TrEMBL record:
Family the entry assigns: Belongs to the bacterial solute-binding protein 8 family.
Signal peptide: 1-20
Protein name (Swiss-Prot/TrEMBL): Iron complex transport system substrate-binding protein
Gene3D superfamilies for this protein: Nitrogenase molybdenum iron protein domain
GO term, biological process aspect, one: iron coordination entity transport
InterPro entries for the chain: ABC_transptr_periplasmic_BD (IPR002491), Bact_iron-sidero_bind (IPR051313)
Keywords carried by this UniProt record: Ion transport, Iron, Iron transport, Plasmid, Signal, Transport
Main location class: other
Organism in which the protein naturally occurs: Ketogulonicigenium robustum
Segments forming domain Fe/B12 periplasmic-binding: 42-312
Length: 312
């Protein structure tokens, strides 16, 4: 990491008023070397339930975020609402609607650092870099979710905050695991796809699968059939009989009226009779957790998964 003192505003005309600031050079997930403030003061993150939730949890000064439009027509931040109770206007402004980059709105927030998801914003990198230093975050780059989170913490100058959060998480995992069976068995992460009559099998599923494996669950072989570098694969209904996992974990969206019963009903339509031959169903070990609480790659989301095993 390279550090130097510069007049940062000379390089960032849209950012804060001119002031001598310490800067450093970091390499983002796409290999770009970018000069960034040592401790950014006006961060704009463009993906709500990935980069925004992490930056917020670390205590970064997030002034703007990407968001989505709810059924009521109002913008909101997915998972920021569910995990932290934060809405637009609570010191965070709308930077762009997901899928609709708004460079003018972003520039008006005078960011000194922009963090964007590679899968969303790579075509707009040059445009964003004309506003402020921009770092590209890649969620699926071969590293674990926590390794990627640690990278983002370092970019933000929040490595100590990450270490403290991780230590708290690991302590709770050890506590919960100590009160569980030594070998809790195997699991599979999956979702029904009633529209196509198929099933999604996941290799990883955000914080949920991280916690399950930290608690000692082993993976059903079908999860490892998902190609490396891919998060999921589509499986035909006929293959559901090959699921030998002791537990099935799924997620649902309560705002759509979904719950475990709805998902199991969808599986009835896709694979009639599955309740009679899947070991997890016979053992009563089919679980569905609220998606926007347990998918994001944050310690708060991991805590939500732990709450299933250790209600607070």
């Amino acid at each position: 990491m390279k550090r130097s003192i510069v007049i940062l505003a000379a390089a960032l005309p849209m950012a804060l008023p001119a002031a001598a600031q310490e800067v450093r050079t970091v390499t983002d997930h796409m290999g770009f070397e970018v000069v960034v403030p040592d401790v950014p003061q006006r961060v704009v993150t463009l993906n709500d339930w990935t980069t925004t939730v992490m930056a917020h949890e670390l205590g970064a000064n997030v002034v703007g975020s990407g968001g989505r439009v709810g059924s009521d027509g109002a913008p909101y931040m997915r998972s920021m609402r569910e995990l932290y109770g934060v809405e637009f206007g609570d010191e965070i402004a709308l930077a762009s609607i997901h899928g609709e980059l708004d460079a003018e709105r972003i520039a008006a927030l005078r960011p000194d650092l922009i963090i964007a998801l590679e899968s969303d914003a790579m075509p707009y990198r040059a445009q964003l870099a004309s506003i402020a230093p921009v770092l590209m975050y890649a969620a699926e780059n071969g590293q674990s979710g926590l390794e990627n989170y640690a990278d983002l913490a370092e970019w933000l100058g929040k490595g100590a905050a990450f270490d403290a959060l991780q230590a708290g998480y690991e302590a709770r995992v050890q506590d919960v695991r100590g009160r569980m069976p030594a070998a809790p068995g195997s699991y599979i992460a999956m979702l029904p796809n009633p529209r196509e009559g198929t099933i999604y099998i996941y290799r990883t599923y955000g914080s949920m699968t991280v916690v399950l494996e930290d608690l000692g669950f082993s993976r059903d072989p079908m999860m490892d059939a998902v190609p490396e570098g891919a998060q999921s694969m589509v499986s035909s209904a006929e293959l559901i009989g090959g699921i030998t996992a002791d537990s099935i974990f799924m997620t649902h969206i309560p705002d759509r009226g979904e719950d475990l019963g709805v998902l199991m009903g969808q599986l009835d339509e896709i694979a009639p009779g599955y309740r009679d031959f899947l070991p997890a169903v016979a053992a009563g070990n089919v679980v569905s957790l609220p998606r926007f609480h347990v998918y994001p790659p944050t310690f708060a989301a991991m805590g939500q998964v732990l709450d299933h095993f250790d209600p607070q």
